[in-house]
Amino acid sequence: MNEQKLVDTARMLVANDKGLLAMDESIPTCNKRFAKLGIPQTEEYRHAYRELLITTPGLGEFISGAILYDETIRQQKKDGTPFLQVITEAGIIPGIKVDMGTQALAGHPGETITEGLDGLRDRLQEYAQMGARFAKWRAVLTIGTDIPSQGCIEANAQNLACYAALCQEAGLVPMVEPEVMMEGDNSLEESGEVTAEVLQTVFQQLYTQRVMLEGIILKPNMVLPGLTCSQPASVEQVADATVQCLLRSVPAAVPGIAFLSGGQSGEVASAHLNVMNLRFRSPWALTFSFGRALHQPALDLWHGKESNTLAAQQALLHRSKCNVAARQGEYKTEMDGRTA
Question: Which residues pair with 218 in a beta bridge?
């Protein structure tokens, strides 16, 4: 394990106020989003959309890394240029999703465990040889009656830590993603308590597995009230609750925290990130690793039609610029054509 190379890559992923583009949707998830817009759910259209994303002119000015899916990392442009080459030449660091998705956790109704450790060492070595420099593993925890249970939290934390250790062994920076879902009626306070418990358990396991914290990126959820909570939270309350939770749970050795958007709109996710960077001087870089909140506007405009490619790319570039501004504490709602 080349520790300095891991540290350097982790720092590069969160440097210069840039963020990450999460374009690692599985085939079923991507097809589901296509279906909502009437786009054919085929490999041809998935290929065309991902080529649209990575060939956006100037994207490397705002995006430091791109998380790919196994199908995508093996694809080429129409002219035969490998996607990995396109991404690298744009100054973007290629990464890869390596978990195999969630399954029901035995003995824990309503809870899941992320699978994919079997054969992971060999898969990581293959991806590293292809040119990937970091990886991602997502654990999913749900807030509800008596959940998440301690058993579920610990099981997912152990898997995340084992994955992270294998990544570093292979020379890949592990992106550690424990996502606490915000879909119920839980309050902002309850979300913060559960998120803190999850993060603290994850870092205990990372220590146990001897993972070098300077060579990881944390990808957590923001602390939000549940979607059906009767007490909404202001942008400032979300920012304060999120950063306070992180300060109590995440060691300063971690170089960067790249938030997932968790179903937030692009504008709302940018606003939350902006206030965090405006109000706090944290020990870590606070950046973004958004999927839908970054490229959903592009997908909506593209609609599966080649003639819409330029407009879609401009939409992706716009959201990328907004999020870079949010890292600088300079995002304004007017940037999206709205008033406060």
Answer: 176, 257
* Residue of 177, 189, 190, 306 with catalytic role: 177
Q: 264-289 b/e with 16+ CB inside 10 Å = b? A: bebbbbbbbbbbbbeebeeebbbbbb
Asked if residues 17 and 324 have their Cβ atoms less than 8 Å apart, the reply is yes
- Beta-carbon count within 10 A of 47 CB: 17
| Residue 174 to residue 160: CA distance in whole angstroms | 9
**Which tokens belong to 177?**
């993603």
CATH for 3-328? 3.20.20.70
Q: 305 catalytic, yes or no?
A: no
State which amino acid sits at residue 228: T
Domain ranges of the chain: 3-328
Interatomic CA distance for residues 203 and 160, integer angstroms:
10
The verdict on whether 236 is a catalytic residue reads: no
Identify residue 225 by its one-letter amino acid code.
P
Q: Which helix (H) or strand (E) holds 318?
A: helix 309-327
- Cα dihedral sign, 310-322-86-299: negative
CB 13 within 8 A of CB 134: yes
pLDDT in single tens digits along all 340 residues of the chain: 789 999 999 999 999 999 999 999 999 999 999 999 999 999 999 999 999 999 999 999 999 999 999 999 999 998 999 999 999 999 999 999 999 999 999 999 999 999 999 999 999 999 999 999 999 999 999 999 999 999 999 999 999 999 999 999 999 999 999 999 988 899 999 999 999 999 999 999 999 999 999 999 999 999 999 989 989 999 999 999 999 999 999 999 999 999 999 989 999 999 999 999 999 999 999 999 999 999 999 999 999 999 999 999 999 999 999 999 999 999 998 888 753 3
Catalytic residue among 18, 97, 136, 219: 219
